[in-house]
Amino acid sequence: MEINTTIIEIESDNFPAQAGTLYSQAFSNTERLRRALKMLVILWAVALVTVFIPIAHFVLVPTFLLAGPIVALRRYGMKSALEKVGGVCPACGQEIAIPLEPSDWLPKRTYCPACNKPLRLMYNDPAVATQ
User: Is the pTM of this model over 0.90?
Assistant: First the structure.
């Protein structure tokens, strides 16, 4: 697993933009395969456990059996995942760290964890945003 950093802008209304750092993970092909197989095994194990739940197993078992390959394929297709943004809040000037979900995209609207002012996380280079 490789950690990548990218310089971004943290913007807030009526305040000058500040530079921030976007941290993301890049997965190799073997890591992607391992992550996908792990999800497949977990969901199929849950399907096996739900066999013993009366009546509900008619819905739960097929659902988990179908969800296994679907989730595994989505996991395998994920080449990188966003982790967090670090920087200085343009509004209050405090050092902040904003956790991100792997499925998040930039530009993203969020709030400062220190002062609760609205923030926009944006790439510096417009060409990076389209990749």
Answer: no
